[in-house]
């Protein structure tokens, strides 16, 4: 099974969804570490209770690069092949993102490319959208900008507030993230898929020369 480290900053409900999904025998990934920049993140306690190794290191007083390096070392020491960001509310250094290129996923509560950043629910309501939703994407140096792997649309109902909508989008997030992560780690192990990626990169290289 592919080895995944989950990075959280708070509640950790997406982390819990990924952990519980991994309890199924057929799940192609296992969670080897839950790490946080916030030692008080409630999600850490849950992970510990589930017997998952945890790591916490506050970012206060450290440069972005220094903190990312500490996290990176803990993740590598845990033997992780992939990182799943799950409400990790820190912008990552380009260096860290580069080290985990194509191996780091994030979940974002909007239908990307719409509403990158914060306040996604209120922005969808203010725009009069009839759907909100969530996206799982690969992490690239630009915030919330990497290739989208999967999305779920969530209908906006009359009378929805940002909080009510957030609760409903979260239900969709929990299902989407576990499914998208499972699919992603499986596809990477598929020789045809790897060949396809090599072909795509070769084409991209040709274009730049
Ligand atoms: C989730 O809604 C996630 O999509 C969002 O933070 C929440 C974390 O909740 N992430 C972002 O906004 C990242 N840009 P959780 O800790 O219960 O998973």
TrEMBL record:
Give the E.C. number(s): 2.1.2.2
Q: What class of enzyme is it?
A: transferase
The residues covered by the Formyl transferase N-terminal domain are: 3-181
- What does it catalyze? N(1)-(5-phospho-beta-D-ribosyl)glycinamide + (6R)-10-formyltetrahydrofolate = N(2)-formyl-N(1)-(5-phospho-beta-D-ribosyl)glycinamide + (6S)-5,6,7,8-tetrahydrofolate + H(+)
Write out the entry's keywords from A to Z.
Answer: Purine biosynthesis, Transferase
Q: Where is this site: Raises pKa of active site His?
A: 144
* Binding residue positions for N(1)-(5-phospho-beta-D-ribosyl)glycinamide: 12-14
Question: Which residues take part in binding (6R)-10-formyltetrahydrofolate?
Answer: 64, 89-92, 106
Which pathway does it take part in?
Purine metabolism; IMP biosynthesis via de novo pathway; N(2)-formyl-N(1)-(5-phospho-D-ribosyl)glycinamide from N(1)-(5-phospho-D-ribosyl)glycinamide (10-formyl THF route): step 1/1
Question: What is this protein's function?
Answer: Catalyzes the transfer of a formyl group from 10-formyltetrahydrofolate to 5-phospho-ribosyl-glycinamide (GAR), producing 5-phospho-ribosyl-N-formylglycinamide (FGAR) and tetrahydrofolate.
Family, similarity comment: Belongs to the GART family.
Protein name (database record): Phosphoribosylglycinamide formyltransferase
Q: Which organism is it from?
A: Parasphingorhabdus litoris
């Amino acid at each position: 099974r592919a080895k995944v480290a989950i990075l959280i900053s708070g509640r950790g409900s997406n982390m819990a969804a990924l952990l519980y999904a991994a309890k199924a025998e057929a799940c192609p990934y296992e969670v080897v570490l839950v790490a946080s920049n916030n030692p008080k993140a409630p999600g850490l306690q849950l992970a510990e209770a589930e017997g998952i190794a945890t790591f916490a290191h506050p970012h206060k007083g450290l440069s972005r690069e220094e903190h990312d390096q500490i996290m990176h070392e803990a993740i590598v020491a845990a033997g992780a092949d992939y990182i799943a960001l799950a409400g990790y509310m820190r912008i990552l250094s380009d260096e860290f993102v580069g080290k985990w290129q194509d191996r780091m996923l994030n979940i974002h509560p909007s239908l990307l490319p719409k509403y990158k950043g914060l306040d996604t629910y209120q922005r969808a309501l203010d725009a009069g959208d009839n759907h909100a939703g969530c996206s799982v994407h690969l992490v690239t140096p630009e915030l919330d900008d990497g290739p989208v792997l999967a999305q779920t649309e969530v209908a906006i109902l009359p009378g929805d507030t940002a909080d009510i909508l957030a609760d409903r989008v979260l239900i969709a997030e929990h299902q989407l993230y576990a499914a998208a992560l499972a699919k992603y780690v499986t596809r990477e192990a598929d020789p045809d898929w790897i060949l396809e990626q090599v072909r795509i990169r070769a084409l991209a290289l040709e274009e730049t020369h």
